[in-house]
Amino acid sequence: MITLPLAYLLSGGWLHIGPPYIYIDIDPVLLHLGPLAIRWYGLMYVVAILVGLWVIKGYTTRKGIDQDMVYRILWWCIAAGLIGGRLYFVIQQPNLVDGYLMQPQRILATWEGGMAFYGAIFLVIPTLIWRARVERINPLVLIDAGVLFGAAGQIFGRIGNLINGDIIGYPSTLPWSTVYQNPNSWACFDPSTCNVPVQPAAGYELLVNLVVLGLMLYLAHRVRRPGILMLVYLFSYTISQFLIFFTRANDIVSFLGINAGLKQAQWTSLVVFIFLLPLTYWVLRHSKPVPDGEVAATYGIPQKPKAALETRVLTEDTSKVPAEAEESTDDALTKRADTAADEPSSTFSSEIAEDPATGEKPVNPEQMTAAESPTATEGESSTEADKNEAINDLPAVPQNKRNQEKV
What we know:
Its EC number is 2.5.1.145. It is a multi-pass membrane protein. This protein is mainly alpha-helical. It has a domain at 37-178 and 191-307. The protein is built from 13 helices and seven strands. It has a three-stranded mixed beta sheet with strand order 1-2-5, with no helix packed on it. The chain has a two-stranded antiparallel sheet with strand order 3-4. Strands 6-7 form a two-stranded antiparallel sheet. Strand 3 and strand 4 form a beta hairpin. It is globular. The chain starts with a helix and ends with a helix.
């Protein structure tokens, strides 16, 4: 077998490109850390997420979606993608009852292989719509960012498929056919596909993903109508899946009693394609181009009235001040009353001593009535009476107000 020396050296002996085929000798397990196995496929998922975030950063910034919001939405979408992709794979298996429903722990055994990307799409898009409503942004703008993220990340997922050998095409003699040689490869679990040249179905999907990503990046800088990137991605994915699965060695199934020699993913592609036709009409009719100078994420989406919210908060804060001031005033008055009761009068003592010359106690002038006062006159008495009567005629002052006036 003739190999290309450069490719052989760069791959560490894992990849042999030479006549007549492409030979892959890669262990799906990258390294072992005790009982933990680090797999190439899992590493590709991490790389896909990081690259996807890098690709959409400029797009989300232009559309008015800040990075904090991106990360708040990201974790929900990762969970939805993993759950949806795994569940959709499980329900397609011919041994669904015996292999999974009777052994539910196998549903979580993703290390055994099996993720269906259609399932991720079916669960992630509703998740994006829900998060868009929570964040008060246009759902179509957020979905456009989501499919751009998916188109970039999907490339690395296909690299993981090529390494795993879990996407197998029909036997082929084409010069670009792949031959899996590593005994731990998924292809070698079946002797009929181990060391046998097969169609590189995962490689075909990888090339399609690169073309679709390039097209979407081009449109992302030129299209102002939200939802167009979503339609381009979904149409591209459904059409490519329908065609590529003619090269994949998957089981042929019937749908609604119709046996047309199609696989499960092809039936799904047909259903999704039919659904996309009215969706396209709805997007073109209801999604309007965003005018220059407007923020695409919030354009046409009602936002919370910030001014009214701030006024309400200030009103609630100031409404607490009178009550707190009244409590402080009452406390101060109580303390002053207690202090006055404990301390003797600064002018007269509580016990007035007798006069040693006469043997009589001096009279406190403040305790003398107007009649007893030696300087009191009839006019003064009537004046004091008039004052008292006028004071009694005044309206009563609330107790708390009197307390505040005393303070």
